[in-house]
Amino acid sequence: MTYTLPRLPYLDDELEPAISARTVSFHYGVHTRTYIDNLNRLIKDTEYADMPLEEIINTAPAGPLFNNAAQTWNHLFYFFQLSPEPKKIPSVELMEAICEEFGDFDEFKKKFESEGTAVFGSGWVWLCVDANKKPVIVTTGNAGNPMTDGLTPIMVADVWEHAYYLDYQNRRAEYLKKFWDVLDWKEVDRRYADLFE
Ligand code: MN
Predict the structure, then answer these.
(1) pLDDT for 197
(2) CA-CA distance, 176 to 183, in Å (whole number)?
(3) For 75-98, what is the mean pLDDT?
(4) How many angstroms is it from 177 CA to the middle of ligand 1?
(5) What separation in Å is there between the alpha carbon of 49 and the centre of ligand 1?
(6) Which of 4, 51, 68, 132 could make a disulfide contact with 38, Cβ separation 3.0–4.6 Å?
(7) What's the CA-to-centroid distance between 136 and ligand 1, angstroms?
(8) Cα–ligand 1 centroid distance for 71 (angstroms)
(9) What CA dihedral angle connects 105, 185, 121 and 123, to 10 degrees?
(10) 3-state secondary structure of 54
(11) What sign has the CA pseudo-torsion 80, 86, 88, 90?
């Protein structure tokens, strides 16, 4: 199998002002493409060549293969939940679940932002669903993905510096506040609803 960089359903400049065209073009067009190129090189003629991406992430030992497989998955998951015309709130079902866990929607957003801001170095802040189908916020370092801990991710913010440095320099908290402006809950709702089918 050869992975390719899928075309995004929006133009580089359409997430502005939250995320600039320059950031999208580097972060997707260069960084994400590089993870995919590395992944293709690392799986070629190995037992991983025809393995589903999730299975590679769940079975690869720590190292370059895991890192590039997970970064491929994580970035596609991140970019395909963003939209220039996002649905701004979750479905009734997901909103109820979020409010039950976190108090209210604003409290949830605050907690997500503060956990993302607190990641030391490079990583990700995730909204996942646990084995009891409850929403939970978790963070991972570097290429980490919560699926290896048995959680199901439904939303993510990339907190590597390359995700925000061109637009916000070191102000990660500000980037995370603006992230909501382009996060499309329609896609998150779909991921959540899939868990109940
Ligand atoms: Mn990234």
Answers:
(1) 85
(2) 11
(3) 98
(4) 17
(5) 24
(6) 68
(7) 22
(8) 8
(9) 120
(10) helix
(11) negative
Over residues 30-81, the pLDDT tens digits come to 999 999 999 999 999 999 999 999 999 999 999 999 999 999 999 999 999 9
Give CA–CA dist 99/196, Å, rounded. Answer: 18
Hunting for tokens 């980490």 — which residue is that?
144
Q: How far is the CA of 109 from the centre of ligand 1 (A)?
A: 21
Residue 171 CA to residue 12 CA, distance in Å, equals: 22
Taking the centre of ligand 1 as the mean of its atom positions, its distance from the CA of residue 99, in whole angstroms, is 29
In the reported structure, the alpha carbon of residue 122 is separated from the centroid of ligand 1 by a whole-number distance in angstroms of: 9
Give me the sign of the Cα torsion angle 181, 143, 162, 111. Answer: positive
Per the CB < 8 A criterion, the answer to whether 6 and 32 are in contact is no
Q: Which residues contact 160 (CB under 8 A, 6 or more apart)?
A: 122, 123, 124
Q: What is this structure's pTM?
A: 0.98
Distance 180 CA to ligand 1 centre (A): 17
